[in-house]
Amino acid sequence: MSRRLLLRLPFDPLGLTGLIGLAVLWWAITFFQWVPTVFLPTPEVVVRAIGDNLTASRYLENFHLSKGGLLTALIYTVQNVVLALVLACALGIGVGLTSARVGIVRSLLDPVVMTLGTIPILVTAPFFLIWFGTDRLAQVVLLVLYDTTLIYLFAQRAAGNLDPTYEAAARTMGAGRRKILFDVYLKGTLPEVFGGIRIALAGAWGLEAISELLGAPDGMGKVISALASATDVPTIMATVLVLATVAVAFDAAVAGVFGYITRWQPEVAHG
Amino acid sequence: MASGVSTAAGLRLDHVSRTFRRSGGDLVRAVDDVSIDIPAQQFVCLIGPSGCGKSTLLQMLAGLQPINSGEISMGGQPIAGPSPERGLVFQRDSVFPWMRVIDNAVYGLASRGVDKQTRLATARHYLGLVGLAQWERSWPRELSGGMLKRVAVATVFANAPKVLLLDEPFGALDYVTRLQLQRVLLNLWGESRPTVVFVTHDVDEALLMSDRILVMKGGRVVDDRQVSLARPRVVESLALAEAVAHKEALLLHLGLQDLVDERLARV
Amino acid sequence: MSSRVSRLTSVGVLLGLAIAWQIASVLITAESVPGEPMVPGWQMLFTQTFMMLSDYWLGGFGVAGIAQGGDRTYAGAILAVLSNSWDTSLRLVAGLLLGAFVGVVAGLAVSWSAWSRRLVALPGQVLRTFPLLALIPLFELWFGLTFLGMMLFVAYGVAVIFFTGTVNAVRNVSPIYVQYARTLGASRLRVYRTVILPAMFPELRSSILLGVGVAWTAVVGAEFLGAQTGLGQIIVYSKYFGYVDRMFLVGLILLAYAALTFAAVERISRPLTIWMPGEFADQPAVTEVAVVEPQRATPAIGRTAVLE
């Protein structure tokens, strides 16, 4: 390949073209009526729906949803997702890392976690709704269960994959137990654990949404549920798009932060 | 029973250059205006310190890297892209782990459409020559590094290339295995005599194998030595006066300044 | 800890949990609805509850459905479980196969040229971060609460996984194999067929297990939100009446099915990686949950972390 312009961009400009292409495709489908607009509304209609309902929406109030429009519902959803993730990290990382080394912990927890890992966590959702009512608690517990399982497994695997050479080297240099724990164990496993957190986050949005769909005091899922019974496709798409954008934005932000923290990692060259 | 002796071809490099743009932005001349004429059937070693451009040059000969300026021609025709006529033995393991040894050995022949009977016979012949006849049905994961290298050599030879390129093929192996494989290679070469360009950083290896040694430094060819030691060469050949003279010169090229100082001290 | 001891401990832990559940069912006498305990004990589950499942049998095969005035029988219950299992399984398998096929083919097609790969990388990544389960109401509005709708939803979720997984797996094929094949005279197509496809199988296996997990979640989610039949539907339907015991029993049945499918898929896909060097051959597949990312190597997770 002849000389290539090396622009220092955080993303691939060609990929951005791909995204734009997707939007153009959507517009084209509705413009040429390849799919009737009752099924796939035009981008303008959806965008307008977003604008109309983002803050204080009369329309949404008619469904007995909160007054602040999509934004309040979004805040509710985001709060649950973030809270659950933080709790899961607190629960899962330490225990997961320990389980790789301490056999008893592993033997006790692994069967539980593996069982949880085999069922779709979603199956437990109705139980929480009955036990805790259609309350924030039910959603958070569900998410914590899901997130913790994933993070535990990632942390365990990260600790297992950590080259024992590092710890041995630290020991021979006279590092104490606590220092090794922090400098070698925690920092060395961060990349993989971060990966797990990112994956847990990605799945959490959908899980939270459907949990709200099943019954919640507020949230994007509840909005979608109300709109679905009114068969309002444009506003549903608007809501889903807003939620998806937030999910993607969070993922990008988290990836950026994590990438920065673990910037010491060698780049893996691909062919 | 070979599938026919290859008609070796000569290589000609005409003011060949390869430039990279590094991540910092500056231009690097990995290969700088190199012109060489390699007659057919000659065994050439390309030697030099790390980063001198020898591997890059070899990759260009193989057609795996583009030529930024100048021309490389084989048998009078300019080259374009990889081709079975210029076989390459890689430094790292390239044998396909998901195919048995025999399937690996026939790969080149199968790719060129040779019929099943012929290609099996040819592959078996070469596997026999490298001493792996009993390992035909094995998976690569069952073989050691040296054995995998033999599979690669047999595979490439089975394809009857006109030019054989080797990129530090024995670099990752232990001393004894390396000697064994050098002998295997020379045996195979003796049978079909393709033109060979062998990249190495090991001076002894170069002296044991080649007719001609080209020294590269900073992307340029700085020395071109004819090696006229009698074949077959053995380890003892390295003690002959001519070999020692070559070796001193080469080590100097490679930057072994201690040798110079030592000689000066002895005087 | 030796594997025998650890296996015994695993069984012990699960037994301990079962016992703890039983104790809890005795201690927690709260009822969701009069007559229905919040924490149903085992003795109830395997007798009374199972019988109750015959409520979901609509009649046929000589066993009258409840609606037609028949009694609750074991036969009815068994038939109910079987027919609903069939419905759920069909949606799952059909969606899984369709999604896998579309995802892999699309992934391979996109990977053919570096340009197309780069073009699709970002949209693929974005699509993967789209919350799958939030799309259920949309799919329902588009395709209705039919078999087709649910199958397509499952297929969509699975296809996204396989697509990004395939693209990543192809990228991770060590370039040396491709170069070696080319210097031996293989055409581009032959390289794709004999080098890239086999080389990406180990990584693809991870996508397969992940895809199965997503398929289960998708099918259960779709059934939660308005199916007429199926195991997930029974759970949600029972919830409205507060029948926690039925929910639990059917949940256990689902767990058994899910575990079976994972084990089966793992078994079946093993011959594909028979050639892998020792450490991978007899271990469960490494699930590389990879978002299509240009630079960084993504971490690997254990086989059961196929939740979504």
Low-confidence residue ranges of chain C: 279-308
Number of strands of chain A: 0
Q: What value does the Rg of chain A take, in angstroms?
A: 23 Å
**Order of strands in the sheet with most strands of chain C:** 1-2
Count of DSSP E strands of chain C?
Answer: 2
Question: Which value, in Å, is the CA radius of gyration of chain C?
Answer: 23 Å
**Element string of chain C (H = helix, E = strand):** HEEHHHHHHHHHH
> What percentage of amino acids of chain A are in beta strands?
under 5%
Mean pLDDT of chain A: 83
User: CATH homologous superfamily of the domain at 50-161 and 189-261 in chain A - what is it?
Assistant: MetI-like
Termini of chain C, distance in Å?
A: 31 Å
Summarize the topology.
The complex is a heterotrimer of chains A (271), B (267) and C (308).
Chain A: H1 13-31, H2 43-53, H3 58-61, H4 70-101, H5 103-118, H6 125-132, H7 136-161, H8 164-172, H9 177-214, H10 220-229, H11 233-261
Helix pairs in contact in A: 2-11, 4-5, 4-7, 4-9, 4-10, 5-7, 6-7, 7-9, 8-9, 9-10, 9-11, 10-11
Chain B: E1 11-21, E2 27-38, E3 43-47, H1 54-62, E4 69-74, E5 77-78, E6 86-89, H2 101-105, H3 107-111, H4 116-129, H5 145-158, E7 163-167, H6 175-192, E8 195-200, H7 203-209, E9 212-217, E10 220-226, H8 241-253, H9 257-266
Parallel strand pairs in B: 3-8, 3-9, 6-7, 7-8
Antiparallel strand pairs in B: 1-2, 1-4, 4-5, 9-10
Helix pairs in contact in B: 4-5, 5-6
Chain C: H1 3-27, E1 31-33, E2 36-37, H2 42-52, H3 74-111, H4 114-129, H5 136-143, H6 147-171, H7 175-183, H8 188-224, H9 231-241, H10 244-269, H11 278-281
Antiparallel strand pairs in C: 1-2
Detailed description of the structure:
With about 270 residues, chain A is mostly helical. Helices cover about 75% and strands about 0% of the residues of chain A. Chain A has helices at about 15-30, 45-55, 60, 70-100, 105-120, 125-130, 135-160, 165-170, 175-215, 220-230, 235-260. The two termini of chain A are about 15 Å apart. Chain B has a single domain (about 10-265), classed as 3-Layer(aba) Sandwich (Rossmann fold), CATH 3.40.50. Chain B has 9 helices and 10 strands. With about 270 residues, chain B is α/β, with parallel strands linked by helices. Chain B has helices spanning about 55-60, 100-105, 105-110, 115-130, 145-160, 175-190, 205-210, 240-255, 255-265; strands at about 10-20, 25-40, 45, 70-75, 75-80, 85-90, 165, 195-200, 210-215, 220-225. In chain B, strand 1 (about 10-20) and strand 2 form a beta hairpin. In chain B, about 35% of the residues lie in helices and about 25% in strands. In chain B, helix 4 crosses helix 5 (about 145-160) and helix 5 runs parallel beside helix 6. Chain C folds into 2 domains: about 1-40, no CATH class; about 40-280, MetI-like fold, CATH 1.10.3720.10. In chain C, helix 9 (about 230-240) packs antiparallel against helix 10. Classes of the chains: A mainly alpha (about 270), B alpha/beta (about 270), C mainly alpha (about 300). Chains in contact: A-B, A-C, B-C. Chains A and C meet through helix 1, helix 5, helix 6, helix 7 and helix 9 of A and helix 1, helix 4, helix 5, helix 8 and helix 9 of C.
